[in-house]
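Archive entry: two folds, one per protein. Generate the first.
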Amino acid sequence: MDEISVHNFDLAGAAVGIETAYRSNLQVASSGQGTWAESTVIFEKNERNRLCAVTFEGGGEIPNDATFYLTDSKDETVPIQMPVYTRKPNNRPVPQIDIKTLSDGRTVVFDGARSTDEDGEALEFFWDFGDEQSETGVRIAHKYEEVGSYLAEVVVSDDSGQIGNSSLSRFRVVINEPPKAVAGTDRVGVPATASPLQKRSAKRNGNSQNQASIQQP
């Protein structure tokens, strides 16, 4: 499903929105007292064919009753799971990702250990490496078979059980060709030969040093 239309009646101006796994409070028009309103929300690629939630609060009536129904792009009715729940808003995880390339130039370590969740809930990590390979876990080593630029991503989810329990982070990984050593021209070293003048000078210096070494203070 690429989009969803939210039809609501008699909200008396209550705040209403759509929540997906990755985004919260997607704006939806709110109906007034005794009137209908309709809004369409477009889903991103990662949100399609997944559960979403309609949220609303406040309004000009206490208690505030409301009527909803949902339709897709073909104007067909979308089923709503019942019953309706009243829940505390969930704080989404905050991804903090460290990436390190190993010495072989092809293996990359993806580490999400610094990621946090304000509610203190346990986190799960779903990695997509951008090369049609994926894996789960906090810290993963993945080897790329080819050089190139890869758009990778990680989904970090908490265990709150709510629809809006995940955050998505995308990043680019570049795999380069390893450096190659280039041999230069062969060279042969020849020991230096002292000239006769240098030999006589060295001999005189040596004698001076020997004489200096036996002088008494």
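Generate the second and append.
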Amino acid sequence: MTGRYTVIGAGAIGGTLAAHLHRAGHDVDVVDTDPGHVAAIRADGLRLRHPGGGETVARVPAALPEPGAGELGAVLLAVKAQATGAAVDWIAPRLAPGGWVVSLQNGLNEDAIAARIGAGRTVGAFVNLFADVEGPGVIRGGGRGALVVGETDGRRSDRVDRLVADLQAWGPARATGNVTGFLWSKLAFGSMLTATALADAPMARLIDRHRAVMHRLAGEVLAVPGAVAVERRGRRHGLVVVPTPGDHPARGVDRMLAAIAEEGHVERLGLRSLSVPQEHSALLEARFRLDGGGDWDWMWTTAAPGPVPGEERLVELDDTADAAELVELAAHSPRGEGEPGTGVSELWLGIRDDHGRLVAAGAIQRLPSGAPHLAGIVVATDLRGRGLGAAVTAGLTRAGLADSGVCTLGMYSDNETAARPMYQRLGFQLGQELATYAVSA
């Protein structure tokens, strides 16, 4: 346990977390600028009403931000973004030498906080809680949502790990090495939600109907940083750096690569690879020591393929029980990334011949975004050209689309003749031409 928490801003977010932390036995103080809210908490406790009925009453000390307040340790800042400056001005002279502030706010407030108290004492968080203030001292919860906490420079830290452990009292909080990415993604998504206020219809329906407009709105937000870095999991764990819409894509990619290099992210995050659009590979070579790599295409589809001969022969395989056979088959395609037996792949489909030998297989893995990604598709060399790869790919694609409505895959660029026509027949289209290189710290 971290010890005592001071929650500054006891509204929907701060009040919810304060109540859960107190219920779990943590020492919690709350500070709020609303005299009526503070008076109600002092008199009747901080009351958190649950979606399914019932309520939690947290008897926590509550105060206005008065001049005589004592020293602060771990601070959970949950005020409106526009109140950040005043809140941090009050916090700064009271923050203990080992104290720190985590921003549990909407917007990008971490730089403003760091400018006042120092980057080393500032922690970021992506917060998506469903709650509202019903009245003085009363919060109405609407479900768990999501909460992701991380150091702004991407490093692992004991304080973030302790905070995340303590926040399990609320729900599935987790740590990240890319909290800035979460915050920018939230801004981009928020721009789409704001646009839906123009029509009286469910947000999800409007976003789905007007995808082109929504893409442009999100693109305008993400054009500000110039580039984004997306985590790539698996044995080639790394970052994929792509430019956001704008007039200077090379400049955006180079700025992102410079930040990765200067902040030591290769070593800090344990990266094994970095990827950039193929036309920007020289920028990667200029900033990092590379240990070889190659070109590949990222492809995607949202349309189910037509019937493919051989799909009726598909059987589901077990990542553990069938690992030995999958490893033996994978030797026919050494560059494959199915990684059988490791738990990385969540669904395997395969085809056996009349003697029970496994002759074709492929897997679905999960991207950090949650999208299904096809991997490790392999056909025994003596049976290639008979449509087995197409049958496996079609079956996996249907499973991915049924799960998420989208499916992605990666194709090595030198596999142009055999693979690309097949993927295109199955409905996949080119998303990005990438170059990936192994890196070392």
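Annotation attached to the second fold: Residues 305 and 426 are 5 Å apart (CA to CA). The chain has four domains: 4-177, 179-222, 225-288, 301-433.
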